[in-house]
Amino acid sequence: MKILIVNTSDSSGGAARAAYRLYQALDAQADVEVAVLVQKKNSDDYKVLAPPSKWDKLGALLHPTIDQLLTRWYKHKTRTLFSPAWISNGKILKLIKRYDPDIVHLHWINGGMLKIEDLAKIDKPLVWSLHDMWAFTGGCHYDEGCAGYTRQCGHCKVLGSTKTNDLSRKIYKRKEKTYSNIPNLTMIGLSRWIMQCSQNSTLLGSRKHLNLPNPIDTTFYKPFAKKEARELWNLPQDKKLILFGAMNATGDKRKGFKELSDALHHIKSDEIELIVFGSSKPRNPPKFGFTTHYVGQLYDDVSLVTLYSAADVMVVPSLQENLSNAIMESLSCGTPVVAFDIGGNGDMIEHQLNGYLAKPFEAKDLARGIEWVLEYEEHDSLCRHAREKVVREFDSRVVARKYIELYRECLRG
Questions:
Q1: How far does CA 3 lie from the centroid of its chain?
Q2: How many helices (H) and strands (E) does the chain have?
Q3: Where are the domains of the chain?
Q4: Which of 101, 179, 343, 366 has the fewest beta carbons closer than 10 A?
Q5: 53 confidence band (pLDDT: 50, 70, 90)
Q6: 3-17 pLDDT per residue, tens
Q7: In the sheet where 103-106 sits, what is the strand order?
Q8: What does pTM read for this prediction?
Q9: Which residue, among 78, 188, 184, has the nearest Cα to 139 in the 3D structure?
């Protein structure tokens, strides 16, 4: 069985990391031949395919900006990513045809990699993993709670539009026409939440849906000795450490740094310090009354493993979240997680067993959860349950077997 995983990049962003992990999990199976097709290749993995010429590489850099041009008419657009998908890399369809897979497994295909109409030109069964909401919306990657995808979009909240026939409605119509010409399409909800959203959408509600998660290599993402981890990061041994991090951790409103800040102002203690990764120290950093360590962007898994292991609790205060890599990685390293009870967080966090699910967007309850984890007398049991949850349900070997069975069903169907 020959599988081609398609994602814009092989390493940049959460979807890229998840797609690459699935490729690695499948590649370890004897009965699967698998490769990854990307627009922008960063690794030297020979099984990662990409358009080879210098012009193609230049295009990979320019396409994301060009694809955003249509959104510039909307002066009141929010900072949430919106992808019109009106341009594409012309080599991608040719490379798919040349590889000739049995199944094409789509992941995050934006940034000018594929335009919507290209999908109907792929004459193979399609499996599509939902890393965000874009596949079933009129262009936004997260809908900011408007649920326009249940009524054909228009009046787009993300675009700041008051018109019915706006860009979101036009993109919706393009998707509607294209999807009607795709006979074999299976949608994968990485979380139960995103699957339910897709099932409720007018674009994809009639398609087959399955809930299958991202995999993680639990033989690599595993607990590292806390004392040594703190020594590596030059962190204090006598403090309780709170960890927060994401891509653009302090700049992306959806990641919840403001909510975390509000929560931390409710915590009064001389025993805690905060670690922030994914962002450098801001020009005017908030003052919480305790030390904050800004460690910047992390580019390798070893750094992540040691940093998760150095912390006593990880906080993921996102306002919308699918299946967070950070939550899964932290739990796999044996560090409990506190997050709002939204999106796919409940798929991984079991309340007061391996972490704490706070009432959505209530800073006081987020603070209560952080304190509960830090002060819980049987903290070691939280850490043990965190690790056991991931090994049982998200380990690479467990998840790979489920995907292989799905691919077989698609071919039979």
A1: 21
A2: 13, 13
A3: 2-215+395-412, 226-393
A4: 179
A5: confident
A6: 999 999 998 888 999
A7: 48-49, 33-37, 2-6, 103-106, 126-130, 185-189, 208-211
A8: 0.91
A9: 78
